[in-house]
Amino acid sequence: MLDGKRIVLGVTGGIAAYKAVELCRLFVRAGAEVRTVMTAAAKEFVAPLTFQSISRNPVFSSLFAGVERYDHVHIALAEWADLFVIAPATANCLGKIAAGIADDLLTTAVMAARCPVLLAPAMNSAMYENPVTQGNLQKLQALGYRFAGPEEGELSCGETGRGRLAAVELIFEQARALLAAEKLLAGLNVLVTAGPTREPLDPVRYLTNHSSGRMGYALAAAAARFGARVVLVSGPTSLARPWGVRVVDVTTAREMREAVLPEFEKCQIAVKAAAVADYRPGSESGTKIKKSGELTLHLVKNPDILEELGKLKGERFLAGFAAETEDVRENALDKMRRKNLDLIVANDLTEPGAGFNVETNICRLLFRDGTELPLPKMSKDLVAETILREIAKRYRKQ
Known about the structure:
Oligomer: single chain
Strand content: 15-25%
Strand order of the largest sheet: 13-12-9-14-17-18-19-20
């Protein structure tokens, strides 16, 4: 299955390091060539000779110990690999990669890598749930790093919680999927919009919505992984910028329109995932509005960017989202027709695990040609990849 594929297996210092031996065996048995990089702490758990015997290749651990074939071993490994897999990936390793710290062979090689990097976290559940770790995971995900696990279960400390290394079979399957990924959008310009807009009322307050921007950012990152040149027009979010994506920051709906229109002219595919405010205050106060009984707001309608793009569409593929709470399919189909879309992604916001401010989504893809593809609950990364695969398939046939 992996004949001719070249994998760098990074092993860091956690009790789950012994499971990386079986992962190495699976890779080799599938036909891959594996080179193992071990941190100093990893060698306290498993002997390098174990990986050398299974992979039939030397094991690397020192940034400064020369190996005959490699003058600059970290660069050579990065250029050689089709895929990096780090299993287990400790909190320390994740933190260093997220911060751009390269102080050993593994982190310097990862920093030089241009291939996909799959991280399999493993640690105590308290360490995993620590806000610093969660922030690092979110940053790495936005930068395009892929994750396998962790799982919930019994930990080596005797506690039960999330932090257990994902099953090696699952890590293997995710690695295989990454190695099989094609540059489906190579040579294409893709425009993605994400996040909410904010419509100012006064210097203190604004009107907005619950969008976190996660879905749009996942789409932009996936499009870049598929080889597209990606522009992401983003409303205000706290998300890290996706790797390999040009980001244009905006705040209001009108600013988003001004940023989107010139980019739309240059793109072949546009995916409008932003939750643009439908209305804005009719006037903005230059000073803070003081509390004094009831307040009546006069709202005016914002420009409908998606409808405008539908009129300018031409041969472009145009996709939008419909976040609904009732008559989801019917409302989404109506929106698709009115705005001349090729695809609309329908979300039922009443379903747990779908919609705003969660890391998963449940949606239905409705295409202009009448095809419907319901998607079960899955991560927004996987939803994004599924959407773009379907778009690529249809765009290439136009």
